[in-house]
Inverse folding.
């Protein structure tokens, strides 16, 4: 769910790498692309990639080994999921509630849809 | 570093000066976007910086030396890719032989990589190429020259659709850490993601000279519905709602620069420049 697709490019890039880590494309201690490799791949200024990598390092998602590159940190996947849960509860949910209020949708309507939805793990498809 | 100090310039025979008492400077290690409406003097400025044109008064210093002196120590560190040019009736190999000795940092591998990235033949005869192909060759040579200062006038003009993306890849892959690239362009969408510093020329003056980081720190770029237009400095309609610029509140997350919107807002005086 993406309510804000105006996010700064470097934030979107950090998100993209986090997606790849959560999906298992990069495992713990795997090397992620270098700053320049990633810049070439996405065709952006290398300074933008540096900003994205700084966020990831600051959040302990990756660590830097001098001269070797950036590697996925232990617990990265869990901490990404934890911080996304937090963002969901603090940003996505209030926006959802705002829409519900505007459109006169109540929580029971939401629950009905949830019970029918294929994403509902209880239905176990 | 490039320092432009109080330059004035007028083309011979013209009544209208292109620049009068213009001053600003360009730091190293950036990719500058030089923007401006037609006829504002973007190409002229590039030619003045490279020393191809000389200012009537004032001076342009490149690493402390006036570019109008055209000293070898300066010329070996600048390369300009003009918007249009004629290639001599020689093969690429002959062209390289004629020119590479002027550039001490010339790197043949970079040239070969660029030609391959651009999907050009390795041994083209320069006269037989289309405009787009000539441009790619010229740009490949420019990147291979390894100069500290690279100036490009409308580099993506005339490039086919896939080549615009190739251009971005070729630049990000081959631009060295201590180089400065100045791109004069109207094609903001082609180049937005590459630029880290924006210069807008308007009415013979520098209207904007700012890093992209400062712009996205100061302003927020969002799409808003008709009911949400409070505190908007400038807006344009779009199919996603209204594309808007407003002042960013410190607690708000930064957004992505919408360069076309920013340009329009700045040149219409809606922003604080």
């Amino acid at each position: 769910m993406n309510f804000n697709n105006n996010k700064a490019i470097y934030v979107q890039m950090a998100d993209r790498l986090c997606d790849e880590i959560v999906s298992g494309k990069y495992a713990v201690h795997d090397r992620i692309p270098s700053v320049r490799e990633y810049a070439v791949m996405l065709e952006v200024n290398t300074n933008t990639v540096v900003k994205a990598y700084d966020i990831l390092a600051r959040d302990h998602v990756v660590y830097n080994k001098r001269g070797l590159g950036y590697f996925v940190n232990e617990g990265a996947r869990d901490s990404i999921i934890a911080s996304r849960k937090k963002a969901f509860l603090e940003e996505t949910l209030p926006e959802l509630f705002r829409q519900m209020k505007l459109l006169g949708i109540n929580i029971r309507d939401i629950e009905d849809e949830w019970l029918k939805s294929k994403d509902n793990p209880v239905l176990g498809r | 570093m490039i320092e432009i100090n109080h330059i004035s310039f007028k083309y011979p025979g013209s009544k209208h000066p292109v620049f009068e008492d213009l001053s600003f400077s360009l730091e190293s290690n950036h990719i500058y976007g030089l923007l401006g409406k037609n006829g504002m003097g973007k190409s002229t400025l590039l030619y003045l910086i490279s020393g191809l044109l000389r200012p009537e008064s004032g001076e342009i210093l490149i690493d402390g030396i006036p570019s109008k002196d055209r000293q070898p120590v300066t010329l070996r560190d600048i390369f300009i890719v003009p918007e249009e040019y004629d290639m001599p009736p020689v093969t690429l190999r002959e062209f390289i032989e004629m020119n590479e000795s002027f550039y001490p940092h010339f790197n043949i591998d970079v040239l070969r990589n660029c030609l391959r990235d651009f999907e050009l033949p390795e041994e083209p005869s320069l006269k037989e190429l289309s405009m787009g192909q000539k441009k790619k060759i010229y740009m490949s040579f420019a990147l291979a020259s390894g100069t500290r200062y690279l100036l490009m006038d409308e580099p993506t003009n005339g490039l086919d659709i896939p080549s615009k993306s190739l251009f971005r890849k070729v630049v990000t892959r081959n631009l060295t850490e201590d180089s400065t690239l100045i791109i004069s362009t109207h094609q903001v969408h082609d180049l937005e993601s590459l630029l880290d510093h924006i210069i807008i020329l308007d009415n013979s003056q520098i209207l904007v000279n700012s890093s992209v980081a400062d712009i996205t720190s100061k302003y927020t770029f969002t799409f808003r519905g008709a009911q949400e237009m409070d505190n908007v400095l400038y807006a344009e309609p779009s199919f996603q709602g209204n594309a808007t610029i407003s002042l960013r509140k410190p607690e708000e997350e930064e957004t992505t620069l919408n360069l076309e919107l920013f340009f329009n807002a700045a040149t219409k005086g809606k922003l604080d420049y």
